[in-house]
Amino acid sequence: MRLNDIHLRDPYVLPVREHGTYYLYGTTGRTAWDGRPEGFDVYTSKDLTEWEGPYPAFRPDASFWADREYWAPEVHVYRGKYYMFATFKAEGRCRAVQILRADHPLGPFAPNGEGPVTPADWECLDGTLYVDESGLPWMVFCHEWLQVKNGKMCAVRLTEELDAAIGDPVVLFRAADASWVVPVEGDDRFVTDGPFLVREEDGRLLMLWSSCGKDGYAIGIAHSDSGQLAGSWRQEPTALFGKDGGHGMLFADFSDRLLLSIHVPNVHPQERPAFFPVRQDGDSLLMVDR
């Protein structure tokens, strides 16, 4: 199958060179908003063009706490294991990020730790792993606009086993800090979605993240002026991708070409994964004309 045949939101690509394989994860389009999801699937490819699958990567057992809105899985390699950071929801419980673990990118993934690593009384989503300059693991995630109006981008330390949070989250920035962001409802509600951190070769630290722009769902870039997770974070004035597509991440293909993975359009049920070449331009990133 081709990418146009795969109904996914929030596409995340894990290239594994020793396998010669790309692994594609994402929010299952069919159950993104309604219905009971089966879990998360994974697709595989040798060339980013022809894909096989879906294969079941995570299937919850009867004791798993969440039964709806399984969103935005992304898989990171950490200390020889594969860790899936994903968003879940249940009736009477706040949306939360749970970390899962497996020995192989195909899974099966199983819960890592006793439950979510986001605060129990916060509506949260879109956790991503960041390992700082001292080798300490952190999770960057969103404190959702539905609860706080001006969505927050937050970070929290994780244990070495990635099975629990250490201490309280810290706020990195808020959605309305970026001039390209427009309110999603009324005039005081601003979205934070989809953080993804990029450490440049020269040590600079960037973050891709999504919100609503003037032409729909969009991706912007934030810069840490200190080069550290604590920031301060400076927002670029215009979006990297500004027209009805988002939740981006970067990966290098096996030819070391840098690609941006997003879903487009941001309209259900039309959303599909798409890859776009990007390049470093000074201290930022630019889309490359094909």
UniProtKB/TrEMBL annotation:
Name the pathway it acts in: Glycan metabolism; L-arabinan degradation
The source's superkingdom equals: Bacteria
Look up the coiled coil feature and give its residue ranges.
none
Q: Name one GO biological process term.
A: carbohydrate metabolic process
Q: Name one GO molecular function term.
A: hydrolase activity, hydrolyzing O-glycosyl compounds
Q: Which UniProt keywords apply?
A: Glycosidase, Hydrolase
Q: Which residues cross the membrane?
A: none
Site positions per UniProt: Important for catalytic activity, responsible for pKa modulation of the active site Glu and correct orientation of both the proton donor and substrate: D126
Q: Which InterPro entries match?
A: GH43_arabinanases, Glyco_hydro_43, Glyco_hydro_beta-prop_sf
Family of the protein in this entry = Belongs to the glycosyl hydrolase 43 family.
Protein name, per record: Glycosyl hydrolase family 43
State the organism named in the record.
Cohnella abietis
